[in-house]
Structures are given as C-alpha cells and as structure tokens.
Write a structure and sequence with these properties.
4 copies of one chain form a homotetramer. The first copy, chain A, is α+β, with helices and mostly antiparallel strands. Chain A is 20% helix and 34% strand. Chain A has a single domain, classed as Thiol Ester Dehydrase, Chain A, CATH 3.10.129. The A-C interface holds A 14-16, 31, 34-35, 38, 47-49, 73-74 and C 14-16, 31, 34-35, 38, 47-49, 73-74. Strand 3 of chain A pairs antiparallel with strand 3 of chain B.
C-alpha cells in the first residue's frame, strides 16, 4: 500500500508578490511551492537543517508548473505537497487551489537529487536517511 | 524556412540571488528567463508596454526548467531565448550556458497565451499583432 | 490620550530568504515590515485594496532599518508595527524581536504620503479617509 | 585630500521589479543598491568572495532610503555609490538618478561593520585589510 506522504498549507499573497496585472507574478509560485515543501519535509524531520546534518544537499533538478488560475490580493489559497517518488530521486507533486472554492489554480512538480556535500557528487540512488525519515522502503 | 527568432544576453548573479549553498537559488532562474524573454520581445517591438497597448496580456501558463549545472558568485552566464511557437500560444525555449566554457547549466521553456485585457478572455489563437510584430505567418 | 494603533505578527523565514551567511538577507526585512504593515492596516479596514478604492496610493518616501541581530532558518520572530504619525504623512514604527527570547533584532520605520491616483499629486496633508479609518483626529 | 572612492552603474528595471502601481516596488531599491555596492567593492578587489577569504563578513547594520521619484518599466537609471566612512564602519552613500534627465530618484546610505567569521564577533574598528584594499589611512 502506498503511504500518504502529503501535507497542506494555506497562504495569502503579500503585496510585494503582485505584478502590474494586479495578480501574483508567476515566478512567486516557486516560493509558495518551497514553503509547502519545507513544511512537508519538516513533518518528517528532514528539512534543510537535517538534510545538511545528514551530509546531503538536495538541489532541484527539474521543476514544472502549469497555471490554470490567478491569485489576487486578499485571496487565500492552499498548497498541497505530496512525495510521489523517493527511490532514485525525490519527486514532490503540488496542487494549488483557491481556499474558498477549491478551484484549481496551479499544478506542479519538483524533482530533487541527493548531492553529497563533502564530495559534491550526485547520488543516483537516494540515501538511506531519506527512507528512514519518511518511513518507506525503496 | 523557419525564421530565426532568438536573442542572447549575458548576466552575472547578484549577491542576493545566492542561497546558503553559495549557489544561485533555483527560483531565481525564473527571473533570468524573464529578463532574456523581455530583451527578445523588445527586439521585435512587442515587450510588456506594447503588449498592453495592443490590448493583450500574455500570462505564463506553463513553465519547465531542467537544471544541469550551478551558478556561483562572479560566474558570467548566457541566456539564449528563442520563440518556437506562435500560432495558438507563444512558446519560448531557453538555454543557459556558462559564458566562459559554454557548459550547459539550464534548459527551459515557457508557454504564454494571449488574454484580452478588456474581456479577461483567453485567446485560443494568437492575435494578428503578434505575427505582425514577429514578421511571421501562422 | 494617544490611541494604540499597533499590531503584531509572528513569522518564520522561508529558505529562499537566506543568504550565503546562512542568515536572512538584510533586504528581506523590508518584506517582513510590509507584511506587518498590511496586517495592521487591514485591521483598520485601510489596506491596499481600500486605499485604491479611496482614490489614493500611499508610496513609501522614507525607510530606515537598524539591524541588531540576525535571523536563522527555523527561528520564529515577531514584527510589531505601530502607527505613530497620521497628520501630514503616515509613519509606522516597527520592532522585530526573537519570538522565544524577546531579544531585539531590528528597529525600523517607514513614512508614506498620500498620492491622489487620478492627478498623481502628492498630498501635503493626509486625506480625511485615513483619520476616519483609524478613528483619530489630526 | 579625500580620496574618490565612488563608482556608478546604469540599470533598467526588470518586469518582476514592478508592483501593481506599475512602478518599481520600493523594496527592490535595496537590490539595486547592493548591485552598485558590489560593483564598487569589486573595483577595489574587496567584494563578497575576497571579504570571506579575508576572514570577515560585513553585515549591513543600518540602511536608510529616501524616495523622491519613481521608476517605470523601460526607464534607465544610474546608481552612484561612494564610500564615505571606513574607520570604524563602512558607510556607503548612494544616489539614484534618471539616466536621461539626471533627476534625483533616491538618496540612500548603508552602514556595514566587520564581523570576524570564525569568532562571530563584531569589530569596533575596521580591519587593516579594508584600508589596504581601498588605499586609505584610518
């Protein structure tokens, strides 16, 4: 059975997130995804500080975003993040929805790989520490 | 014959673009792509201000980035942007390379669609003004 | 008697707020001040959207920040914002403190003036709408 | 005689620097100041990388900006940075002007102090390396 490795947060845009169209600038969604990703990884005790302690950095190697709606000032939205791959790379899928109506605003994913900090070498298999933290088997 | 609708700029990262790994934070590439895209569209007289004058906004609806290298402080890099679709949507492909060695650092694309500002309606075919500006046929 | 026109929020830094020193980049405090200022103005029903409706923009004309501490990843901090002038210009004073210890991290102020949107003219006296919203006398 | 420790750069705003008022968001000037400061310090061989090598970080402890004009998309502007104190702290004064007309847009200063990286201790006198690099006497 596939484990549930997901987490959801609710955000509202800051004024400085808006562009001249009076909507959130498209690049700022990358920040929202990161906030949701960090909250998710924190839940499993493997956020930025623990990653570094474990000897690995986890750079983003792929990022895809599909925009289907816009966010205006004052509009609350949810970002759901779910880990969907953990064997050779860490894939996280995201769904951004309007908090009031549930309307889909953005669908995205990111892919990270482990990079050993000391050697600066990419790992082609995720390190054991990730599986231990998530409580999964490769 | 396919027209050459490309442009290349050279940039260096700002200190505030760096993250704790001492490399450019992955989300900042979205800014570099935008700077290259705007420079390209300016060449054809159809950047943000002319878009607005023409009655259309061009929101990003898809964005994909593939990271194959890192950028450190002081490292010059090139961003090449090329328009590869203009019929129903505006697709731009990007290639980020190290300015000194030519090593590939990032490969990306963005897709934009025309949105009529007055009606807020998405256009399923690009407006004539885009083709006129680019000097292309749909 | 001077009215209490203050509000306090609690924040934690995002990973993308950090710089290579592994602390929050100094420029990001400007964002935190804005989030606190907007929360404060929202409390009085005079945030960005209501400002615009009232016919005025309120550009920042002065900004001063004094840094006395650093913020690291995972460190919760409070931002207290208080309106201290409202006659001819809107001055807001800020105090950023560590949420756990109360240690002062930053002391700042911003000054805004009313700009009539239609005429683009600076107002040398704050408009009545500000005083009505805040429940104060000039 | 006071040495001339100044440098000037010319910039144009990126689209993502604009806010809903269609002008550069006030917080982005902090980025422009930093770009000018780094270019100035690079001229003297004492930018971020050399600072780190010398064993010191130079955090900003004071920052003041006074806005007297606005920057719109496509508007070139100059940022002049000048070192005006170097004995106990590093003070840099900035002047932002419209590139075409010379109109003053912003006047600012930043103050940095040396922080020994190993001990994390603030220095109450600037280290000798700064004076050597700048070619000045304390």
């Amino acid at each position: 059975m596939k484990p549930d490795l997901s987490h959801e947060i609710t955000l509202t845009p800051a004024f400085h997130d808006l562009d001249p169209m009076d909507i959130v600038w498209h690049g700022n969604y990358v920040k929202y995804l990161e906030v949701a990703r960090c909250a998710l990884l924190q839940k499993y005790g493997y956020d930025y500080l623990q990653m570094r302690e474990s000897g690995y950095a986890w750079p983003i190697v792929h990022m895809h975003l599909k925009y289907t709606g816009m966010v205006v000032y004052g509009q609350a939205f949810k970002v759901r993040a779910e880990i969907t791959e953990w064997e050779n790379r860490l894939r996280i899928d995201y769904l951004v929805t309007d908090a009031a109506t549930g309307k889909r605003l953005n669908k995205a994913y990111t892919i990270q790989v482990a990079l050993e900090i000391v050697t600066r070498e990419m790992q082609y298999v995720c390190p054991q520490i990730l599986w231990d933290k998530l409580g999964v088997q490769p």
